[in-house]
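Rotation project, supervised by the postdoc (A.L.). Task for the rotation student: set up a whole-complex structure prediction and record inputs and outputs verbatim in this book. Inputs entered:
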Amino acid sequence: MSDSQSSIEVCFSPALYPFFHQKKAVVVVTDILRASSAICTAFMHGVEKIIPVETIEEAKLYKNKGFLVAAERDGFVLDFADFGNSPFNFSPSVVKNKTIVYSTTNGTQAIHMANKSSEVIIGSFLNLTATCNWLINQQKNIVILCAGWKNKFNLEDTLFAGAIVEQLLLDKHFYTICDSANASLDLWNIAKHNLIHYIEKTAQRNRLRKNKLDDVIEFCLTPNITDILPVLRGDFLTRMENKV
Amino acid sequence: MSDSQSSIEVCFSPALYPFFHQKKAVVVVTDILRASSAICTAFMHGVEKIIPVETIEEAKLYKNKGFLVAAERDGFVLDFADFGNSPFNFSPSVVKNKTIVYSTTNGTQAIHMANKSSEVIIGSFLNLTATCNWLINQQKNIVILCAGWKNKFNLEDTLFAGAIVEQLLLDKHFYTICDSANASLDLWNIAKHNLIHYIEKTAQRNRLRKNKLDDVIEFCLTPNITDILPVLRGDFLTRMENKV
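Outputs recorded:
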């Protein structure tokens, strides 16, 4: 590494983020199954803003004010919400030109946690290469924050982190001495040739199957169906307009 | 899984332990480079008790009372201590029949954190098979607690966790649905055929090299040079007498 290079770190849990926080770093928040995939889908389908909120109470307050609210806990749509956490809920007829309030088990908390860094973007396989290209242009230190599952490590977010690490390390500007980043890359190298098969053993894949919510797996693992990059501006997510 | 089986989970950081704590589980604390390797070495060389303490202040108090004190932070021996964290410090002439007070950057905190579980044992490659055999006999849920580095994930503790997961899953009594356990096993399967080579990329390996403290690497990665199992009894570690 040299002083002119930028570091890549991977944080496996929101509970570990305080040990990774860097004011000048860009944070990529990911929650592959399903929040960050759903957010990318919403922007692909023309949503104007997404307001991520941490608590059920906040989501309810927004609902009472007349907002469209997507909210789930443990995979299930909350009773007061308009819909839940499946990317398929965020169809063009529902979301186009709308502002949506969004609260999930893991992902939306992680977004808030990162908001004191230089920039917070939302990454998923759906916008993988767009995410990497933008990160390469920034030439800043990068922290990939995996939303995990209730503060535990999860494999699917880690694999996505590994996919980013792989692409960034092809650029000599970046380096990593982070064991989590190296572990993510090694796991990605095992999984990448048959991601759907590898994902079979993950806890969240089995949780979604048990709850009959697993129709989204293949979609959420599809790379590069959009080049939109959701970015946090204050308390809402919007699409990044100027990507360089 | 069935009700009669026992689960295996891997916790990658002391900061995540609250999400893994189970009162009835056995916790295996590991800090391969170097605390848990040093503890196993000390018992192999006849130490009677090791009192793990969390803070430098506690270690100093014990020193003032006349105890033999091993204490380090960031790899370096503290000025008031008798010696530091290298397994080579714990030679028979120094430790035989002694009680040693021990405080390290990561490992001794992790030991204290786990003390509300059913049993806390200390695992390292040095006592790998003894650890696995004892765990198999207990038929209890198992949490492998990686000491990590300042609450961050590290690879060497994860590989050791993977080595345990591999052996335990050969016994039909055990199962895992823990993504951290599956990741540990996958990483172990990459690394195990040339552990010394794999360890080259880890942060702690490079930290130790930089500080000229890397003479212990090969020793710390040597499997099964002892069948002693250090166990926490109240506030001190002792050797497990009845291993079945």
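Student's summary: Chain A is about 35% helix and 20% strand.
Supervisor addendum: Chain A touches chain B at residues 12-13, 15-16, 19-20, 149-155, 158, 177-180, 182-183, 186-187, 190, 201-204, 206 (CB under 8 Å).
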